[in-house]
């Protein structure tokens, strides 16, 4: 049984992580921006109150991150899944830079994951073979950018990737792994109706990747099939 923290659990990939982690018996702390409207998540918590704790967590809010750390107390974190993310303003075309929207997207996608790790470092250090999983996107890859556009989302995920590599380097000697994951193109509100895989397939594959992760994977940008994505 692992102790797992997941962010952004109201819907989509985050909610499915909670479902699959509960099904395999893990102890889950699920952060959600608006608990009052996250009915599917709160129903899961009502069914498994010993296994699932739901916490209010807007990842950009320091007080929410501190409350999560206080709730965990001395409990170690074995797996931290930084899943919460936004696509940012649309349309995102040349000539229409939404500066405030860009900064807010950076806050959620790149800055908050670093701050979350900083806040939870004591619990990560106390974890069993602790691992940080950052939900990035292939759209953050420079090498894979063949179609342009999406300046805001792409750059926020590229920044997250840089955060991931630095975390991997800085925390390796403390035995904490950091993996940067692309979940595939997934049928969620963000992925849209034309996406290629279900949340169930995506999360099962990512959990399999995380289960077999070793020091050789530290700082890798990993596709849904386990292959390495170019930065
Ligand atoms: P969704 O848009 O379906 O869900 C996003 C989740 O993040 C929601 O739970 C949302 O909460 C939460 N969230 C947004 N902002 C915050 C915040 N400030 N604090 C806390 N929670 C927040 O996205 P997906 O499930 O599809 O995506 C999950 C992750 O996977 C994201 O990081 C995304 O970038 C990444 N990804 C997704 C792909 C896809 O094809 N779907 C492809 C590549 C990467 P709320 O309900 O309150 O808005």
According to CATH, the fold-level topology is: Rossmann fold
Shape: globular
Relative helix content:
40-55%
Question: How large is the count of helical segments?
Answer: 6
The strands making up the biggest β-sheet line up spatially as 3-2-1-4-5-6-7
Q: Count up the domains.
A: 1
User: What is the C-alpha radius of gyration, as a whole number of Å?
Assistant: 17 Å
What is the CA-CA span between the terminal residues? 33 Å
Under the CATH scheme, which architecture would be assigned?
Answer: 3-Layer(aba) Sandwich
Overview of this protein structure:
The protein has helices at 12-23, 39-47, 62-72, 99-125, 151-171, 199-211; strands at residues 3-6, 27-32, 52-56, 79-82, 131-135, 177-181, 221-222. It has one domain (3-222): NAD(P)-binding Rossmann-like Domain (Rossmann fold, 3-Layer(aba) Sandwich). Strand 2, helix 2 (39-47) and strand 3 form a beta-alpha-beta unit. It has 231 residues and is an alpha/beta fold. The chain has a seven-stranded parallel β-sheet, sandwiched between helices. Helix 1 packs across helix 6 (199-211) and helix 4 runs parallel beside helix 5. It contains six helices and seven strands, in the order E-H-E-H-E-H-E-H-E-H-E-H-E. Residues 7-8, 10-14, 33-34, 57-60, 83-86, 108, 135, 137, 182-183, 185-186, 188-191, 195 line the site of NADPH dihydro-nicotinamide-adenine-dinucleotide phosphate. It comes from Thioalkalivibrio paradoxus ARh 1. GO terms for molecular function: oxidoreductase activity, acting on the CH-OH group of donors, NAD or NADP as acceptor. This is Short-chain dehydrogenase. It holds the Pfam family adh_short. InterPro entries: NAD(P)-bd_dom_sf, SDR_enzymes, SDR_fam.
